[in-house]
C-alpha cells in the first residue's frame, strides 16, 4: 500500500532510511522545520537549514522515488529567544517561493510560556500575509492538554484563520476531540515512547472516524521509528479494517490536506 508521511524530520535520518521508506511504500514526505538537537545562535544558521530543507532533502528523497515537501519556521523550543525568532520570521519569505515549500510550521508551544505564545502569534501573521497553510506542534506529556487548549484559543481568536487549512499535530486521546470539534485537521504521531502507539492510534480512528485525521512518524532526533506508519497499517489490518479505510488515513487524507497549497505538485505513482 502506498502511503504519505505528513510529518517526518528527514534531516535527522540517514539516506538508508529513505531507501527503507520507499521499500515500505512511502511515496511522499512532508518535513516541518524543527529543532536541530541544539539551540541555534544566528539567523544565518536558520538560512542554511532552510537551504537544506529546500535543496538537499528533495534531492536525497528523489533518489528513491519519494517526493519531498517542507514547512518553514523557528520552532517553539527556540522561541524563548524572541529577538532571534523575529529575525528568522523576517527571513522566511526569502524561501516561500521554493518549489517544495507548502506552509508555515511546525509552530506551536513547548512549555506554554509567554514568549512562545508571542512568537506563535507572529508566525500566524506571517502565514496569513502569505496565504500559507499551517502545521502546529502541541507540547509533550504533562504540558500537552494546557498547551493544546492555549493554541486552539489563539487560533480560534483570529477570524482570518481557516480551520481546514490548519493541521494540529501530536494529538492524543485527551486532545483529539477538541481539535476535531473545532474544525482543524488532527495528526497522530507514532512514537515508541512519548506520544502514541499504533494501537492507540487505531483506537482513536475507531472512536472518531477518519475525517480530517492522519498519522505520522515524526522521525525525530530522539527515539523514533521512521516506518511507524506501516506499523499502523498492520494494526488496522489485524483489526479487520478495509484496505480502502486504511488508505484514506495514510494516503488520501494527507494528499487532500496538502493539496490546498498551490505548491503541492504531487505526482501519484503509476
UniProtKB/TrEMBL annotation:
Ribonucleoprotein is among the record's keywords: no
Stored InterPro entries: Metal_Hydrolase, TatD-like, UCP005295
Superkingdom as given in the UniProt entry: Bacteria
Keywords, in A-Z order: Hydrolase, Metal-binding
Keyword Kinase tagged: no
Any single Pfam family the record assigns to this protein: TatD_DNase
Family that this chain belongs to: Belongs to the metallo-dependent hydrolases superfamily.
Protein name, as recorded: TatD related DNase
Amino acid at each position: 500500500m502506498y502511503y504519505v508521511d505528513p510529518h517526518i524530520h528527514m534531516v535527522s535520518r540517514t539516506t538508508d532510511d529513505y531507501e527503507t521508506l520507499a521499500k515500505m511504500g512511502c511515496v511522499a514526505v512532508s518535513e516541518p522545520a524543527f529543532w536541530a538537537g541544539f539551540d541555534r545562535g544566528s539567523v544565518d544558521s536558520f538560512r542554511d537549514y532552510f537551504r537544506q530543507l529546500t535543496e538537499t532533502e528533495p534531492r536525497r528523497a528523489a533518489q528513491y522515488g519519494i517526493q519531498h515537501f517542507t514547512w518553514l519556521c523557528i520552532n517553539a523550543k527556540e522561541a524563548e529567544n524572541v529577538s532571534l525568532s523575529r529575525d528568522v520570521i523576517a527571513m522566511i519569505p526569502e524561501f516561500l517561493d521554493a518549489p517544495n515549500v507548502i506552509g508555515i510550521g511546525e509552530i506551536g508551544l513547548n512549555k506554554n510560556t509567554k514568549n512562545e505564545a508571542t512568537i506563535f502569534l507572529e508566525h500566524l501573521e506571517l502565514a496569513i500575509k502569505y496565504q500559507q497553510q499551517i502545521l502546529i506542534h502541541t507540547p509533550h506529556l504533562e504540558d500537552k492538554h494546557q498547551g493544546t487548549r492555549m493554541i486552539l484559543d489563539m487560533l480560534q481568536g483570529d477570524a482570518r484563520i481557516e480551520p481546514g487549512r490548519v493541521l494540529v499535530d501530536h494529538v492524543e486521546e485527551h486532545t483529539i476531540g477538541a481539535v476535531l470539534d473545532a474544525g482543524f485537521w488532527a495528526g497522530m504521531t507514532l512514537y515508541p515512547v512519548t506520544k502514541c502507539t499504533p494501537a492507540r492510534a487505531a483506537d482513536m480512528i475507531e472512536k472518531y472516524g477518519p475525517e480530517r485525521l492522519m498519522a505520522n512518524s515524526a522521525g525525530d532526533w530522539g527515539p523514533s521509528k521512521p516506518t511507524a506508519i506501516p506499523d499502523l497499517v498492520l494494526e488496522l489490518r489485524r483489526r479487520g479494517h478495509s484496505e480502502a479505510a486504511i488508505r484514506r488515513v495514510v494516503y488520501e487524507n494527507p494528499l487532500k490536506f496538502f493539496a490546498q497549497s498551490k505548491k503541492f505538485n504531487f505526482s501519484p505513482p503509476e
